[in-house]
UniProtKB/TrEMBL annotation:
<dbReference type="GO" id="GO:0005975">
    <property type="term" value="P:carbohydrate metabolic process"/>
</dbReference>
<comment type="similarity">
    <text>Belongs to the citrate synthase family.</text>
</comment>
<dbReference type="GO" id="GO:0036440">
    <property type="term" value="F:citrate synthase activity"/>
</dbReference>
<keyword id="KW-0808">Transferase</keyword>
<dbReference type="InterPro" id="IPR016143">
    <property type="entry name" value="Citrate_synth-like_sm_a-sub"/>
</dbReference>
<dbReference type="Pfam" id="PF00285">
    <property type="entry name" value="Citrate_synt"/>
</dbReference>
<dbReference type="GO" id="GO:0005829">
    <property type="term" value="C:cytosol"/>
</dbReference>
<dbReference type="InterPro" id="IPR016142">
    <property type="entry name" value="Citrate_synth-like_lrg_a-sub"/>
</dbReference>
<dbReference type="GO" id="GO:0006099">
    <property type="term" value="P:tricarboxylic acid cycle"/>
</dbReference>
<protein>
    <recommendedName>
        <fullName>citrate synthase (unknown stereospecificity)</fullName>
        <ecNumber>2.3.3.16</ecNumber>
    </recommendedName>
</protein>
<dbReference type="InterPro" id="IPR002020">
    <property type="entry name" value="Citrate_synthase"/>
</dbReference>
<comment type="pathway">
    <text>Carbohydrate metabolism; tricarboxylic acid cycle.</text>
</comment>
<dbReference type="InterPro" id="IPR036969">
    <property type="entry name" value="Citrate_synthase_sf"/>
</dbReference>
Length: 245
């Protein structure tokens, strides 16, 4: 067979839809949204504890205030007069390697260095001068979301080799006296590995979790704010040439 598209996710049989073999209509009645997200990203049903873990992860990342780059981008694009879908897309485009988009890289790192050990990992990164995905935070010395997820991981049976490794790196990681905590991307990476997800899921997982927050911010922007956000001159430092002929 040589058809244009191949998929193993969803099919139609006699007018009904089946996601990985499960009747979608039955899923709508019997499963939570978190469970369905696990199913569609992984191809199998989570057990009770995996469902609870995934649900906590999706919930804890749903929003982080108006300040992060993705929220500012979404609200500003809406404020320029573009429609909601453009503003959501703008917010998602801001989820890069420094903000919400570090999970895939962190998963690859944890897989690579699990057996090589913390010392080798830190040596390699020290030599390359690159930032270690999943560590550091603008405002937290210890990320309360990470702490909560670690305690839930213990409760639900996911405090395994990847979470322990991620924490062992956090224990020794600092820069110029500043602690670089295991951040939400880092703990997501470790937990997704514990649950057997492919690293390719990483970026998408954060997008799925944060999109409801972005939509909420855009709706709030539309209901409460005037169009055309603009920085004032006092927010801007000009250091180019003075007026000249
Ligand atoms: C999240 C992040 C942007 C926050 O940065 P910040 O707290 O403002 O830190 P700064 O950019 O001021 O960096 C301070 C120093 O720490 C270093 N640093 C910060 N995060 C680092 C990391 N993860 N690994 C190694 N060094 C790091 C910087 O290189 C800088 O070093 P320098 O002073 O020698 O130039 C940063 O920690 C980072 O890039 N982390 C990796 C990406 C990541 O996990 N993103 C997800 C965030 S939830």
């Amino acid at each position: 067979m040589n058809k244009a598209y191949r998929t193993s996710i969803t099919t139609h049989v006699n007018g009904r839809l089946y996601v990985y073999g499960y009747d979608l209509v039955d899923l709508a009645q019997e499963t939570s949204f978190a469970k369905s997200i696990y199913l569609i990203l992984k191809g199998n049903m989570p057990d009770k504890n995996s469902e609870k873990m995934i649900n906590s992860m999706l919930t804890i990342a749903i929003d982080h205030g108006v300040e992060p780059p993705s929220t500012v981008a979404a609200r500003n694009v809406y404020s320029g007069g573009s429609p909601l879908q453009a503003a959501v897309a703008a917010g998602i485009l801001a989820l890069g390697e420094y903000h919400g988009g570090a999970i895939e890289t962190a998963m690859e790192n944890f897989k690579k260095y699990l057996n090589l050990g913390t010392k080798v990992m830190l040596n390699d990164f020290n030599q390359s001068g690159k930032r270690i995905a999943g560590y550091g935070h603008k405002i937290y010395e210890t990320d309360p979301r990470t702490q909560k997820l670690v305690s839930l991981a213990k409760k639900f049976g996911f405090l395994g080799k990847y979470v322990k490794f991620a924490l062992s790196v956090e224990d020794v990681l600092s820069k110029g006296g500043k602690k670089l905590p295991l951040n939400i991307d880092g703990i997501f990476a470790a937990l997704l590995l514990e649950m057997g997800f492919n690293p390719k899921v990483g970026k998408g997982f954060f997008i799925i979790a944060r999109t409801p927050g972005l939509v909420a911010h855009i709706i709030e922007e539309s209901l409460r704010e005037k169009p055309f956000r603009r920085l004032t001159e006092k927010d801007v430092e000009y250091d180019g040439p003075r007026p000249r002929k």
